[in-house]
Amino acid sequence: MCGIAGLALRHGLTPDAAILRAMLGALAHRGPDGEGVHIADNVGLAHNRLAIIDLATGDQPLFSGPATLVANGEVYNYIELREAHALVCTTGSDCEPPLHLYRRDGAAATAEAMRGMYAMALHDRATRRVVLTRDPFGIKPMYIAEVSGGIAFASEPQALLVAGLVQPRIRAEARDELLQMQFTTGAETIFAGITRILPGETVVIADGAIVERHRRAALPEGGPLPVTEEDALARFDAAFEDSVLLHQRSDVPYGLFLSGGIDSGAVLAMMARLNQQPVRAFTASFDVPGAADERAAAAAAAKTHGATHTLVTVTEAEVWRELPRIVACMDDPAADYAIIPTWFLARRAREQVKVVLSGEGGDELFGGYGRYRSAMRPWWLWGRRPRATGAFDHVKGILRDPPRTWRDGIAAAEAATALPGRSRLQSAQAADIADWLPNDLLAKLDRCLMAHALEGRTPFLDPAVAAVAFRLPDSLKVRGRTGKWLLRAWMARHAPAAKPFAPKQGFTVPVAAWIGGVGERLGPLVAAQPGVAEVARPDRVAALFRAAAGDKHRGFAAWHLLFYALWHRAHVERRDTSGDVWQVLGG
Fold first, then answer.
1. One domain for residues 492 and 532
2. Is residue 380 very low, low, confident or very high in pLDDT (cuts 50, 70, 90)?
């Protein structure tokens, strides 16, 4: 996992090396193990390396004839690609086989052949084209912007901002999405002029302009298939074992983020099956009495599978001290409070490993969220669409102008993913996989881990696993009030000590309790921030923070405003975030 950036300009123009260096500097945290810059004709490519595979000869850019490539991520099936296509490689890099495949088969075929998490940029001097491509689930990020003379691209928006290529102007529509839903949707980001390469999308640039786009779907077409539970368990076991085996390919130590839930518990069970040495597992807990953090379940799972278990206790004092940096790392903002434990887990894990596996994607593929049960029912049986209400619909009068179009992006995703033949459940899953997954969960994982130069891998988000899981009968995903039925059944067979069908406590970050405890002091500081004052009534904000601990809706809304205040200060006002919350907001 690394950081990439580049400029693809009109013919006759030469990329400015200083701009490429500025973007590299903004992405230095993503790859502290080396850097490379390549300028040829009207194209410049830049790369910060986090060395994971082929430590000796895997530096980038990579070259093959007239083609040059930089990449962020991992191509897990690089060995199979090399052998199946008889590719002659000069390095052991996982990213060299795609370079050769592109020269032989073209961009579309190469994208279809890869299995992994990646965002790549390839300059073909023979055709005078630049090809940008992103993995189907959007595990790795890629952003582009139209700039003077052509197109700029980077792994993070802040690289484009720091280099002065784009000014930090807020799109009100995206800001409203963020405040209501905690993430933003679609290709447009919160920054005017910066867009996302969509998950699975390949973009071709010629003469400084986009001339071609095509996408590789993350999910298989068609509705649920008639398959027995026994057959489904066998198919999943084979696909999951293969995926975890590939996701463990690494020339550096790796471990696991273990929450105590079904998803990470399944990854642990499979890793224990495949590894001769104990798995290194890392779990977050909180210093709040009665906090729902599943530390006991995680410890029990680690003991069952002989894992080396590290418990990371997140304290309130640490949160107030580190929160400005935690929020600042989310330059493409997602106000998911799970950024807090993820940040601290990454910091601790990096002391022992350079790669961690995690359970992201399990809920989306196997039907784990409660909102899916509601989406399966017609409206006359009290069914309702997911995310029917936003955070500030529950606390009236806080915002100056209540958002009215905040759900348009999600509605567009729902319409686009409700394909013929799909069940209601499949459509709800597909909508989540299109936006919620890449723009919240995976963005959180990418930014919080890369802030500590730690690579995160997600074995559920694999084409082979998705091919099995997405087309399961609805009854093998949701049965009664129980979600992830098949995954639980697999756990009952392979890790019965986890008691997968027993009610779970769940995982909640106690932000409401933390905010409520200091609300009298914190509320006025948040209310006075320029970003918040623009959208909210200061007196109402102060009252909201005072009442945050007593009501989950108020606590959730207060957290969104606190996040936005810190985020706006870091990325719009471009202010210093080196102090604690009180110093940053009061400075």
1. no
2. low
Assess if residue 223 is contained within a domain.
no
Does residue 3 carry a pLDDT above 80?
Answer: yes
114 and 162 housed in the same domain: yes
Query: Which residue matches tokens 């320029």?
Result: 530
pLDDT digits (tens, 9 = 90+) for 53-110: 999 999 999 999 999 999 999 999 999 999 999 999 999 999 999 999 999 999 999 9
Q: Write the DSSP assignment of 76-103 as a string of letters.
A: TTHHHHHHHTT---SS--TTHHHHHHHH
Contact 569, 531 (CB under 8 A): yes
Structural domains in the chain (count) = 3
Domain that holds residue 523: 511-586
Of 132-141, 199-208, 278-287, 504-513, which gets the smallest average pLDDT?
504-513
User: Would you state the pLDDT for residue 13?
Assistant: 97
Are the CB atoms for 527 and 306 separated by under 8 Å? no
| Residue 506 within a domain | no
Q: Which of 215, 249, 283 is the last residue of a domain?
A: 215
Enumerate residues 6+ apart whose C-beta is below 8 A from 148. none
Torsion angles phi and psi, residue 40, rounded to 5: -140, 120
Strand positions, DSSP E, 423-554: 455-457
User: Does residue 469 share a domain with residue 339?
Assistant: yes
CB count within 10 Å of CB 354 equals 20
- Shared domain for 345 and 477, answered yes or no, is yes
Based on the domain organization, do 108 and 183 belong to the same domain?
yes
Residue bearing tokens 């582009």: 144
Residue 290 is encoded by which pair of tokens?
């009665």
Of 239, 484, 437, 259, nearest in space to 358 by CA: 259
Q: For residue 61, is the peptide bond before it cis, meaning its omega torsion is within 30 degrees of 0?
A: yes
CA dihedral 345, 347, 353, 355 (to 10 degrees): 70
Segments in 60-156 forming alpha helices (H): 78-84, 96-105, 107-113
Confidence category of residue 377, pLDDT binned at 50, 70, 90: confident
Annotated catalytic residue, options 2, 95, 329, 448: 2
pTM above 0.90, yes or no: yes
Which CATH number goes with the domain that contains 448? 3.40.50.620
Q: What is the dihedral of CA 302, 303, 309, 314, to 10 degrees?
A: 80
CA-CA distance, 95 to 457, in Å (whole number)?
Answer: 16
Residue 180 to residues 236, 369, 390, 560, Cα–Cα distance (Å): 36, 19, 4, 8
Residue position matching structure tokens 């928006």: 157
Structure tokens, 132: 């940008």
Q: Clarify whether 95 is annotated catalytic.
A: no
Task: Give the pLDDT of residue 131.
Answer: 98
Extract the tokens encoding 287. Answer: 């210093």
Give the tens place of pLDDT for each residue, 500-526: 998 766 668 899 999 999 999 999 999
* Residue at a domain's end among 464, 498, 532: 498
